[in-house]
Amino acid sequence: MEKRNLYLNNIPAEEAVEIYRKALKESVDVSYERIPVTEALNRVTRSAVYAKYCSPLYNSAAMDGVAVRADITNHASEREAVELVIGENCRLIDTGDPVRPPYNAVIMAEDLVETTDPDRFRILASAAPWQHVRPIGEDIVAGEMILPGGHRIRPVDIGVLLAGGILQVEVIRRPQVAVIPTGSEIIEPGREPREGEIIESNSRMFENLVTEQEGLPHRLPPVPDDYGLLRQTVLKAVREHDMVLVNAGSSAGTEDYTVHVLRELGQVIVHGVAVKPGKPVILAVVEGKPVIGLPGYPVSAFIGFQNFVIPVMDLYLDRDRQPAGCAEAVLSRRLISSLKYKEYVRVKMGKVDEKLIAAPLARGAGAAMSLVRADGFCIIGQNREGVEAGETVEVELFRSLSEIEHTVMVIGSHDLLLDVLADLMPSLHPHMFLSSTHVGSMGGLMALRRGEAHVAPVHLLDQKTGIYNISYLEELFHEPVLLVKGVKRIQGLIVKKGNPRNIKEIRDLPGLRYVNRQRGAGTRILFDYLLSENGLVPEEIEGYTYEASTHMAVAALVSSDGADAGMGIQSAAKAMDLDFLPIGAEEYDFALYPKSLELPHIQAFLDVLQSREFRMKLEELGGYDTSGIGEQILIHGLC
């Protein structure tokens, strides 16, 4: 390979970096290592990390008080108090204690009226099923993706990983960077300098800059101006490290040997850049590894590090650094707040129709996953009662605006495949992301109509025609909307392993404990349809009003004995190792506006949706039919 010396050509810094990174592309590889989660702060995940355990691990009390069966309190009122007796129809319980059958609600200690008997209380109001109970998996569900691949691990992530049962995580390995100070005139700090001597300090600055940039620095002893010794030191450093920094000797003086040594050992790609101060930078490759010669003047050395060392470290760390900050966004739904507090509300962010949208996440103090999912904080100041939907709010960003602007905002029905899509997006299309919020099919369509989402996942059955989704889009939208076909997925009853209650069909549910999906969810609409088809009414189903927001949350409640059955998808049952009674296939599709097809991140989303990698992941999950995926149907809506 021809050796080049481009010194004095004054190459612009950006062009020099591009030339150098191109020369290193074939030889610099990203490598990985497995480390304890407790040591993973600021490290970057290799691939998606999935929870091993639920959090909470069991249905737990959210308040101190007594656990009861909600139905025995139905008639409680100020006129007709209901008496509770410890050990007979209730039990004392503290926050965090398990809530086990037959109990399904907690009454706060403050709502108990004491009697002369310390084991007897009266209550003056009824208790709703599952009030003050944190259901299993409320925060984290086993099998749920905690972190995607390529994610920088933060303190909140470490807490959630441990809560989800993850003790080790595979991360990108930090590059080992050798730092070689040179020059016969330099001495170590602590010695009294004489005339002609300079206290060496640049290498200590480089050490800390490397550490700050997530590398592992190794500062070597100073090398005097001796060609042979410098050659020997550089060669040894190259063979023992990923990258080498040689400080001083990079200019054109009679004892500036660095460029000559690097020409002999490898290839000098650039010598001299159009930067002032900092012109005499050397960008070389020796045995396939980057060796960078930096000027001896401290300011020049610092500027050279910022301009040239960091972009090369980015190659090893597989990162694209973008600064975060604050931004103004439109709130997607109303937030009520207390006048007493300054409240920090976690939000997901996306840019839809040239406006930033902030979608609030779970607000509970125990919802640690909302910190992991959040793109920022919306701050509601003290003495404010809340913020109305559509208002502009300021958000403190956790991610850069560049990332947010290239994020597909998905709001609607939940499915495990959304986690798969979110993980594959940046892998197959670098710097493109997907963010999902689960509010049910109808909630997603409303968000799409208000211009708060790019994509709404839907599976809404028209009970008159038996056709999915189309009639709802025709009725709800007054302009053309696109239905992108997704998957046919199996819906059915999720039951305990071995099906101990011998459930065979919908007709077997009366008398059993059921967990439902939230209002507006396609699964709930399907369940209501099946109840009607089987001559049943909601009042016959214990737990009909007990709502879970995702299929995995339903599976977790069944797994933990919080319910005997719940309706959901086959992949959720498989993920929790539960039995599944198929009821039928349904169509899980994606609604979006045709104009969104112009966006590069929407094109990336559609490409991932039809990719081989995505199909393979769905085969692993089970319960999906991908024939017809990606087909587009234009629906004109009401005129």
TrEMBL record:
Q: What is the lineage of its organism?
A: Bacteria, Bacillati, Bacillota, Clostridia, Lachnospirales
Q: Which CDD domains would you find in this protein's record? A: MoeA
**Mind listing the UniProt keywords for this protein, alphabetically?**
Magnesium, Metal-binding, Molybdenum, Molybdenum cofactor biosynthesis, Transferase
Q: What is its EC number?
A: 2.10.1.1
The record's SUPFAM superfamilies line, in alphabetical order, gives:
MoeA C-terminal domain-like, MoeA N-terminal region -like, Molybdenum cofactor biosynthesis proteins, Periplasmic binding protein-like II
In terms of PANTHER family, this protein maps to: MOLYBDOPTERIN BIOSYNTHESIS PROTEIN, MOLYBDOPTERIN MOLYBDENUMTRANSFERASE
Q: Which GO terms describe its molecular function?
A: metal ion binding; molybdopterin molybdotransferase activity
Q: Can you supply a Gene Ontology BP term from the record? A: Mo-molybdopterin cofactor biosynthetic process
The UniProt entry's GO CC annotations, sorted and at most eight, read: cytosol
What name is this protein filed under? Molybdopterin molybdenumtransferase
Instruction: List the cofactors.
Output: Mg(2+)
Which pathway is this protein assigned to?
Cofactor biosynthesis; molybdopterin biosynthesis
Recorded catalytic activity of this chain's protein: adenylyl-molybdopterin + molybdate = Mo-molybdopterin + AMP + H(+)
Family as reported in the entry's similarity comment: Belongs to the MoeA family.
